[in-house]
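The instructor's notes for this session suggest beginning with a concrete chain rather than abstract definitions. Hand out the sequence below and ask the class to guess, before any prediction is shown, which regions might be ordered.
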Amino acid sequence: SECPDASGDDAVCQPGVCNGLGACMTRPSSPCGVPTCVGDTSRRVAGSCGGDGRCVPGPVGSCGGFACREGQCLRRCSLDADCGPGVRCLGGACEVPRELGASCVTDRACASGHCADGVCCDRACNGTCEACSAARRGEGTDGVCGVVRRGLDPDNECPAGGDGFCQPGVCDGAGACQINTGTICATPRCQDAQTA
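After discussion, reveal the predicted structure:
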């Protein structure tokens, strides 16, 4: 045979037959090869035949955070293993964990592992009169847990009592419910003919 048979991916480009014009047939620009995974999160698309009868590998592209399996980028995830390194599976999508102050719904969405008051927080922030968003604290920065400003109670943690004087139902600005000790909390009234 004057036209050698090529092997592997080149076989498509150089089939080993004459082209009828006095030369061996080549198939430039014909698709060749198959898509392959390059690393965990990249994919090389199928190649195309070059003018020399060889298969030219296709370009490599990212899978956008998803893992590559058997030459295909996954499009949904059910486990973190379906995503690339450092990326988490959240609701079927591969996402990079969010930084402090970013909006969140679950702890898994945050790099810190803590979602509190709708933002990624530096800690669990579940103590009395604590909050992680500036709006709920009344000051500060989103993502840093701190005490709620005096006079506020965004989570209704402080019950009112003593006619509202002893326990006004707000935080004290130091991480506890405000208690007004020594405050007159009731008006004098008669009881059994004596002044109480």
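Then share the key points. Residues 131 and 149 are 10 Å apart (CA to CA). The chain has two helices and 18 strands.
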